[in-house]
Design goal:
Number of helices: 10
Largest sheet: 7 strands, mixed
Number of strands: 10
Structural class: alpha/beta
Shape: globular
Strand content: 15-25%
């Protein structure tokens, strides 16, 4: 695949591929990359369109904001063109509403696949769905002007786009509850101190920092990174002894592979 091959460009999402690195860009800076069902479907399609050669996916947003969250048009009676309004969805059968939300969540789930490492490069506002999209990634590099906030609770809703699990894992239950219940901003210093951000850089250096991290992630052999990611992500739900067993099994696979032994 040629350098910077454009794989997808639709509904506010562009996917480009440069060898082992893919870049997913939110492309509606005029609306601060506000999100819609069409954008979520495009994000899901981007995940499915990744070539097998891709090892690292960088997620970024054009303009001054990463993503200001859900487009408020969703809560108007007319909704989006060609889409049921959220108000109409709420009046429909509960099973249909659940299935629709599950479909929306698919845009946020593929970023943690074991065969890739995902990096969110976040500047400016990352609000609500924008915050949850950044949380969907494995790693986050943020600009000094970043402003995270989980505003759903303030609007009478709950965060439902897969953000609650990583948020609690990163900052702990008490801080996660406080962030969600108050809807307050989390700025760069706190984000780095609490583990929300792996690195804070000046806004002008964000793209270069993401590029450098992507390069560093490619240094180790792919299979070793895949096994390590699976070990670490599974450690949350395993006990100590279970994790020891998982480590031994993973290392056995790696040693057999390096020795050229096939089962």
């Amino acid at each position: 695949m040629t350098s910077l091959d454009s794989v997808l460009d639709k509904d506010g999402v562009r996917l480009t591929v440069d060898d082992a690195v893919a870049t997913v860009t939110l492309t509606n800076p005029a609306k601060r990359n506000a999100q819609s069902p069409a954008l979520w479907r495009a994000l899901t399609e981007a995940g499915r369109a990744l070539p097998g050669s891709v090892r690292v996916v960088v997620l970024r947003g054009e303009g001054k904001s990463f993503s200001a969250g859900l487009d408020r048009q969703a809560f108007t009676p007319e909704g989006f063109d060609g889409e049921p309004s959220f108000l109409d969805m709420a009046r429909g059968p509960e099973a249909e509403l659940d299935a629709t939300i599950a479909e929306y969540q698919e845009a946020f789930t593929w970023w943690r696949r074991n065969d890739i490492v995902s990096v969110a490069a976040v500047q400016g506002h990352a609000i609500g769905a924008g915050f949850q999209l950044a949380l969907a990634c494995d790693l986050r590099i943020v600009a000094e002007d970043v402003q995270f906030a989980m505003r759903e609770t303030s609007l009478g809703l709950v965060p439902d786009l897969t953000g609650t699990h990583p948020l609690v894992n990163l900052v702990g239950y008490a801080r996660a509850l406080e962030i969600c219940a108050t809807g307050r901003f989390v700025h760069a210093e706190e984000a780095e101190r609490t583990g929300l951000a792996n690195l804070v850089v000046p806004a002008g250096e964000l793209e270069a920092a993401a590029r450098d991290l992507a390069g560093a992630l490619l240094a180790a052999p792919r299979d070793a990174v895949v096994e390590t990611k699976a070990l670490l992500s599974g450690a949350v739900s395993r006990g100590y002894e279970e994790q020891r067993v998982a480590e031994r099994a993973a290392q056995g696979r790696r040693l057999r592979d390096l020795a050229g032994i096939t089962d």
